[in-house]
Write a structure and sequence with these properties.
Helix content is 25%, strand content 29%. A seven-stranded mixed beta sheet has the order 11-10-7-12-17-14-18. β8 and β9 form a beta hairpin. It is globular. The two termini are 32 Å apart. The relative contact order is 0.12.
Amino acid sequence: MKEKIKNRTICPSVSLLEAMKRMDEIKVKTLFVLDNGHFEGIVTIGDIQRGIINNYGLKEPVSSILNKNKVYGYSSESEETIHEKMRKMRAEVMPILDEKAELVDVWFWADIFKKSELTQREKIDLPVVIMAGGKGTRLKPLTNVIPKPLVPVGDRTILEVIMDQFERIGCHKFYMSVNYKADIMKYYLSQLDHQYDIEFFMEDKPLGTIGSVSLLKGKITKPFFVSNCDSINEQDYRDVYDYHVSNHNDLTIVTMVKSFKIPYGVIETGEDGLMVALSEKPELTYQVNTGVYILNPSCIDEIPEGEFFHITHLMEKIKSSGGRVGCFPVSEHAWKDMGEWHEYLKMINVL
């Protein structure tokens, strides 16, 4: 049993940030929390995300968010009973406990069921707006020839990767804001074996990161996604939508938890230049905008027509009028960006 969860165990005192990093490092979404060999529970990426949303600090220990009411399997139960629990929960892993609540085995979905069964989850049918009008200047000279959305990632373009991800969760209607090399983009998409349901709308002049969406007034009547076309996110966006609805947000930002370790001692000074505090090689953590959002249709009315308008302007406008702007965090390695050459090269090496 120990071999099954090798590298997947942490102690209760490990911070939420370190747990996220461990998940990223070994590419799993669940860790086992053991205290001197005693089973305390499991922590999932969803648990950590909910903890961050509920204002738990990233330096807080995982023990602070452990759900003591999680459903586990027991050695006294039949295999079919445990299988049914896993199906109902769509559980990637199922700890098996004895009568003393000690861990005696671990069952993995991939070892028991067909992989496709895990994806059987209710789909959502929301419109998706793809912002594809930029010039991609940071990827020149490649974007002198092709528009940024058609930059290849493996055997597909990044645009196809993004749209395929949305289609997998049930979103099939796309609105695409285009400008730079729009004809090349339209022609490429028209020649694909798989035909996406796309309605193009032209941005005649630069309108910022959300300004062109004003052209969709009256066309979208339910919550919708907005996505940049230069990054890929491994997050299941149905989780983001569930959070958006349950939190009654007007706008939800998908954020990435990003850490920066400063390789020096950082000194804080006060009056007369006297040292107040010293931090040795501190690690700073922020939530970074990934360029993916969910907007309520009413947000479109807040975007001025024909004016340069950034998504940040919309966020500030919503907040100043008493609206709700929420943030849904994903781990650092769940998000891959190709906005600059070094990031693009990292992306294609990973994929």
